[in-house]
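Hi there, hope your week has been kind to you so far. No rush at all, and the record is pasted right below.
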Amino acid sequence: MEKEKKNLIFNTFLFLSSFFFIFVLIEIYVRAVVDNGSNLDLEMLRYAKTMKIISKNKDVGLEHKKNIEKKLMGVRIKLNSQGFRNDLDINNSRKKILMLGDSMTLGWGASETFSSNLEKIINGDFQVINAGIGNTNTYMQINNFFQNYKKFNFDMIVLNFFINDFEKVVIKEGSFIEKNIYSYAYLKNRINKILINFSLSEDWKSFYRETFKDEEFVKKTFDQIKKLESYCRKKNIIFVINNIPELRNLKKYSFIKETEMVENFSKQNNIIFINSFDILKNHNEQSLVVSKEDAHASDKTHLLIAKYLKKKLSKELNLK
């Protein structure tokens, strides 16, 4: 009996030691080989750790840190003293356009965003403020405006809507493992892809469509947009919704009905609606995204959207 007990202890120790050794090897491999500055999952993890904080207001969800600069996905992201992705702080002597949105607006993986491009091509008449924050939805972005941004005097507010902006985002503090073990993030993503391939988990198309079926949260989000529209009307601020399409498979776009739903809402509430799909649909899709693994907008896409915004808003902005 004593010998069996010793063998059990030894075998358990051997198993745990082997498991720990394998885990260490995987972690070393991920950090040394996979973490090359262009892995979406690891760069997003680094972004969450270094540049975002959980807001005390659960309706805001996430806020940017201030006065911080990092190289993420191979590009420099600088947040100014107000938490915007702008080199300079807000200049009250200039006219101002506020860009609300998620990581597409932030410009994940892009050196120049449609905010920075738009500011350049309208010849310095306006300062374009990039308030995009990754992993936020429209409801959170508008709440963030009322909590943190409405103190600034904007001449125009552009709400940049992406196909997942009806997602009910749940914000929680990550565990030590989730925040610090790179192999966890890497393996979790690999496993999820395997499950999707075997139809054991929802793919991105199905997931996006499902968010539009959550009638309660869709209504809650639309009500919040109405609140922002009402505020803008009272303050004589031009309010615009700019639809940014999912960039995969634009030739046979999967979300036409979903986009029409947002467009119809805009028309019913007298909100200017711009559909950037119209300027992007005829371009090579591979050139529109950061990489094969990362479907965020490329520098080319950001420039195309900026030029399209200038064209569509030239009358409202009194541009020549």
Q: What stands out?
A: The radius of gyration is 22 Å. The chain is about 50% helix and 15% strand. The beta strands are 52-54, 62-64, 68-72, 75-79, 95-100, 126-130, 156-162, 238-244, 272-275. Residues 95 and 126 are 5 Å apart (CA to CA).
